[in-house]
Design brief:
Layout (H helix, E strand, L loop, with lengths): L1 E6 L2 H11 L7 E5 L2 H4 L3 E2 L7 H10 L2 E6 L2 H5 L2 H6 L8 E3 L3 H8 L1 H10 L7 E5 L3 H10 L4 E5 L8 E4 L2 H13 L9 E5 L5 E10 L3 E3 L4 E2 L2 E3 L3 E4 L4 E4 L6 H21 L5 E11 L2 E8 L7 H4 L7 H9 L14 E8 L23 E4 L2 E3 L5 E3 L3 E9 L2 H12 L18
Parallel strand pairs: 1-2, 1-4, 2-3, 4-5
Antiparallel strand pairs: 6-9, 7-8, 7-9, 10-11, 10-16, 12-15, 13-14, 15-18, 16-17, 18-22, 19-22, 20-21
Bound molecules: adenosine monophosphate and glycine.
Length: 424
């Protein structure tokens, strides 16, 4: 089967790496891809939101399966677009329809879903410019820090956590009245701050059945000891050491089961990945957010642990018979460390040559922001540049190996966190 992956990051490289191992995968295409996928796939110069271009490529290359990496095209309805055309109707699509993608595309939609189905989450209320005065009053009733969330997609930047009440009020005004995050902040969710440790839980759903994939922990802050600005993710590990049997049961009973039941009750058919962002408060799990795709860099630690033939797993997802699949998970731990451009997540320069990407290393080098320049060199082309994933008998060994390998990589301004796993 010919397969197309949409996206350009480390997540997509990791998915491509795993798909390429399947005997059921003939030609593998990535749109637009990066220098890492270029090596063993065919990169197509089509952006993720160019639905017409994607449809044409599907027809031209006789694609049988498409995996949509990022949230944007899903929230914009790529699944609906492809099934509405007779040429692409039969395509196996990994990624939900627009209505289901609202779980990520609208914070208010997600919060209403959580509330309706009694799934533990932070208390909240949402506001628009018409109700801003009520929003200000609501802030006055809450205790700091204040959590303000743009309702729509804001490229991962739409959540503000603010200690000072006046600053929170000012930011609420910026969001609602001055389009701080464009249309995404025409509505703002204000919620209670939860204190705890975060983890990521992943489900693969076929609309009827589901599989729980390995859980992971992501390190989002740029600075050591989780300080500084939020990034897309600076490293990750799987499994999560503090998820023991009893906590896993709580996640299943309090979060996963009611999520599945809620989708059914709301008649939302979900085909693809559900990424549940969780926080452990005391001994209990709460939902911070839903995403409708895999995480990045979580994919770089989760997929190396899945032993199944991934094309079979995804075909079962498209054919609604995931119940026939026995998920096999590697017992080893995997850790990934992300090398990023100097200055990221704020302004940074691109185009620097990358040296020392291990060719014959045991570790896996998943490219994130890279491209091949006119000289044929691999150069930086994004904030997050390359993720180094390694197996180990436990997370300590896996982290150690990734650090050994990442030290061999160099490019101008390269930065990475030296303390992944510090909190475990
Ligand atoms: P989100 O985009 O909803 O995942 O939010 C981004 C990050 O903000 C999360 O990963 C958390 O670290 C933090 N966050 C969001 N909501 C809350 C909350 N209610 N309490 C504490 N931290 C939060
Ligand atoms: N690593 C977090 C995310 O993919 O949203």
């Amino acid at each position: 089967m010919n397969i197309l992956i949409i996206g350009a990051g480390g997540r997509e490289h990791a998915l491509a790496w795993k798909l390429s191992k399947s005997l059921n995968c003939e030609n593998l295409y990535v749109a637009p891809g990066n220098a890492g996928t270029e090596k063993f796939c065919k990169n197509l110069p089509i952006e993720a939101n160019n639905f017409e271009g994607i449809k044409k490529a599907i027809i031209k290359h006789s694609i049988g399966m498409i995996i949509i990496g990022p949230e944007d095209p899903l929230v914009n309805g790529i699944h609906d677009y492809l099934v509405s055309d007779k040429n692409t109707q039969k395509l196996a699509i990994i990624g939900p329809k627009k209505v289901a993608a609202q779980l990520e595309g609208s914070k208010e939609f997600a919060k209403e879903f959580l509330k309706r189905h009694n799934i533990p989450t932070a208390k909240y209320k949402s506001f628009t410019s018409a109700t801003i005065d009520l929003g200000i009053k609501y802030l006055e009733l809450m205790s700091p820090p204040y959590v303000l969330k743009a309702d729509g997609l804001a490229a991962g930047k739409g959540v503000l956590i603010i200690k000072d009440l006046d600053e929170a009020k000012a930011q609420l005004k910026e969001m609602l009245l001055n389009d701080k995050f464009g249309k995404a902040s025409n509505k703002v969710v204000i919620e209670e701050f939860l204190k705890g440790i975060e983890l990521s839980c992943f489900l693969l759903m076929d609309g009827k059945n589901y599989k729980i994939l390995p859980m992971a922990k992501d390190y989002k802050k740029i600075g050591e000891k989780d300080t500084g600005l939020n990034t897309g993710g600076m490293g990750a590990i799987s499994p999560v050491p503090f998820v023991d049997k009893s906590f896993k049961e709580k996640i299943k009973n309090l979060i996963i089961d009611p999520t599945i039941k809620g989708l059914k009750l709301d008649k939302i058919v979900f085909q693809g990945f559900i990424f549940i962002g969780l926080i452990k408060v005391g001994q209990d799990p709460y939902v911070i957010e839903y995403n409708v795709r895999m995480g990045d860099p979580e994919t770089e630690v989760v997929f190396p642990r899945i032993k199944n033939d991934i094309v079979e797993l995804f075909m079962a997802t498209a054919r609604k018979n995931l119940d026939k699949i026995n998920l096999e998970i590697d017992n080893r731990a995997v850790a990934t460390i992300m090398a990023v451009s100097g200055g990221y997540p704020e302004n940074y320069q691109k185009g620097f040559r990358i040296n020392g990407i291990g060719e014959d290393s045991e570790s896996l080098f998943f490219h994130a922001g890279t491209k091949i320049n006119f000289n044929g060199d691999v150069v930086t082309s994004g904030g997050r540049v390359i993720a180094v994933s390694s197996y180990g008998k436990d997370y300590n060994e896996a982290i150690k190996k990734s650090y050994q390998e990442i030290k061999k990589i160099s490019f101008e301004g390269m930065n990475y966190r030296k303390d992944i796993g510090f909190d475990l």
